[in-house]
Each structure stands twice: as structure tokens, then as C-alpha cells.
Description:
Elements: E1 5-8, E2 11-14, H1 19-28, H2 48-59, H3 65-86, H4 93-108, H5 117-129, H6 138-145, H7 152-160, H8 167-184, H9 199-207, H10 212-223, H11 231-258, H12 267-280, H13 292-315, H14 324-353
Antiparallel strand pairs: 1-2
Amino acid sequence: MDGLFHQTDGDKHWWCPSLQEVMEAFHSLGAHSPALGLQGLCQHSGRVLKNNISLSWSEQQDTPPAIALDISLSYICKFLALCALTQPVAYTDGDLLGLIELLCQAGLDVELRLLPKTDLQQLLLLLLQNIQEWPGKLQQLCCTLSKVSGHHHNLLALVQFFLDVTSRSRQLRSQLSLVIIAQMLDQQEMLPLWEEKAQLSSLSQLLTLMKPSSLRQYLGSETLPPCREQQPKASAELDHKVCYLCYSLLTLAGVVVSCQDITPDQWGDLQLLCLQLDRHVSTHIRESPQAMHWTRLKDLAAQTYIRWQELLAHCQPQAQYFNPWKDNSLRLLAEAGSEQGSRNRRKQRTEARGGPV
């Protein structure tokens, strides 16, 4: 354990690996992503992390490589989590943003696909909490993470690295999902994405662009070949791509809404979202026994619509609530008053005629 401490003037400090050392550790385990390469990295002074990884491999000579890789990656995440807990100010905000980006890249790396997701998610939560300037760094972090990959599948997986358990992670999930949707639809500069109270209205405008026919037109200009013989096959592939993209976008839209603390004054925005979802997505999905991928998308649209309707019921403005007890009581009082008034009028007419009361 002594090797994990730096000693300065008689004081021991927990050693925290630098960003470059973490990059080198991932690379030594076979990271494939160019972003995790070693170009331009200087020699580091601390060798504890590298030695620990080598030791874990040497101790597990009889262990299958996949299991050994899983254990080594878990060690890295757990050690970094320990650093984040014991030395929360060891990394600057810039270092934390770089480390979060690096870990997300590692989580998407095909050669590190066995990276323990639970360990990674817990580590990312700790790193988010250690950022001093929050939410000042939120926009920078979202812009950085949205460029980690160019494919919507990877970006959706990246959003799911951040658990919906803290206020910061919820804020990041919502904002990052909205940025990714706008990026996929080429609308980054068209909407006020960074205004927190305008997120639902921005999402409502983006939903109008998620119509399958619009996505097909958008993707078709890039993928359909000019040769007629190849067009049927290319059209079928394009059909799958459109459905796949729409599925990812709709999933991200669900993340944006689920991470919001819906207030009664946002009831109208959420109601409009339900309307846009039904009008521009659900009604344009054509199911077929030969195309079950569209059925999956239809199911997702239906589930999303139901969840949003449930939110509508919970955040409905107080004036629009139907209170059966209160309304029924008022009705009974009105009826009782009306009946009493009728009796009084009959009594007055009888007395006026001089008859018995």
C-alpha cells in the first residue's frame, strides 16, 4: 500500500493517476479507439497503475483472457472511484471533463466491450459530483460528449452510462439527449437548446422532424445508389436505418422528458409533445408482418405516449383537476339549497292564501 502514497515533507498523499496514465492503462489492455491512443503522451512518473495491471495479469495466467480483461478494467474503475472519494479536489474541472470523456470513449471501445458497466456508471457519478463549477461546465461537457461518436447507437449508449439517480446526472442526461437529437437532425443552431425552461418546447419542434418519411428523405440523399439494380436492396437497408434512427431519437426524447421536474406551468408544453408524437411519429409508422422492426418502433411510441400522458395527469394545473369529493359536495349543497328554496316558496304561497302551513 505504501506505493499508493506520495510523501512530501513527511505528509502522505493518496496518489491519483493523471489523465495520460489512465489513457496508457486502457491502451495496454487493447483499446482500439484512436482517442485512447498514446500519440504525444509523455513518460509518466507514477508506475503503480501499470504495475498493478501487469500484476493482475501475471496472477491470472490460468484465467481466460476475457475474464482477466474484465477484472483488470474493474480494477481501474474501482481505483479511480477510490481516488474520487478520498481526494475530491485532486483533479481540476478540466481534468474531470477530460477523464469523463476518456471513460465514455473507453466504454464504447469495441476492444474494451467487457468494461464493467456498473463500475463505470458509479465512477462517472462520482466524477460529476466533484466538478466544482456546476452547472457552468454542463454545456462544455455536453458538447464534448456529443462528439465522442457519430452514430446514434453509440450516443444513446453513452447517455445510458449516466444513471438517473442524482440531480447532476439527471441534468446531464436531459441536456445531452436534447443536444444529440438536435445534432442528429442538424438543428443545433436553430433552437435554444441551453435554455432549461425551453427544453420541452425545443423537443416539441424536434419531434416534428422525426417523421419516418422525413428521416427517410434525409438519409436517402446520402445512401441510395444511382444504379437501378441495386436500389431495391438499398431501399430495404435504408428502411432499417430509418427505423433504427427513429427508435434511438424517440428513446432519447423519452430521456429528456423523464429527467424533467414537470411543473404545472409546463403542462401545455407536455400536452403539445403528446400531440406531436401522435401526429408526426405514431400515425406514420406502417406495421407489417414482414417488417417487425416497425412494430418495435410502434410499441416504443405507444409506451412513450402513455408515460407522457401519466405525467400530464400528475402535473395538471390545480384549476383543471376534477375533485369528486369537492364537486359532489357542491352539487349536493346546490340541490339541497334548491329544494329548501322550493319548500320556502310553497310555504309563502300557502300563507298568502290563508291556508294551513
